[in-house]
Amino acid sequence: MFYKRLEFKNMAGQKVKITDIPVLDSRNPHYFLVHARLQALAASIYNNPDSKTSYSFHDYLKRKMKWSDFIQLYRTEQYSHNA
């Protein structure tokens, strides 16, 4: 799975990073959920300047999603014989 990072400045002008954002195909069933959660996280960070400058989207989703959906989103395929 590929991940991206989002960098922006909050209301106070402080540079903030959101890391570990999964890149999903638009046909993925979790596409809408991930983008809605990302918008909610970015809005809360932008409007509430904090001393923290880096946030993990992976950790945020772990707290906000149902565990079964989280596992399904971040599952990795196992390859046999190092293929």
Percentage of residues in strands: 15-25%
Q: What is the averaged pLDDT score?
A: 88
Counted up, domains total: 1
- Radius of gyration based on Cα positions: 15 Å
Q: What ranges have pLDDT less than 50 throughout 5 or more consecutive residues?
A: none
The DSSP helix count reads 3
Could you give the topology of this structure?
Blueprint: E1 3-9, E2 15-22, H1 31-47, E3 54-56, H2 57-64, H3 67-74
Structure in words:
The chain has one domain. The protein has three helices and three strands; from the N terminus they run ββαβαα. The chain is elongated and about 50 Å long. It starts with a strand and ends in a 9-residue tail after the last helix. Helix 1 links the parallel strand 2 and strand 3 (54-56). A three-stranded mixed β-sheet has the order 1-2-3. It is α+β, with helices and mostly antiparallel strands. The chain has helices at residues 31-47, 57-64, 67-74; strands at 3-9, 15-22, 54-56. The mean pLDDT is 88. The longest helix is centred in the middle third of the chain and has 17 residues, at 31-47.
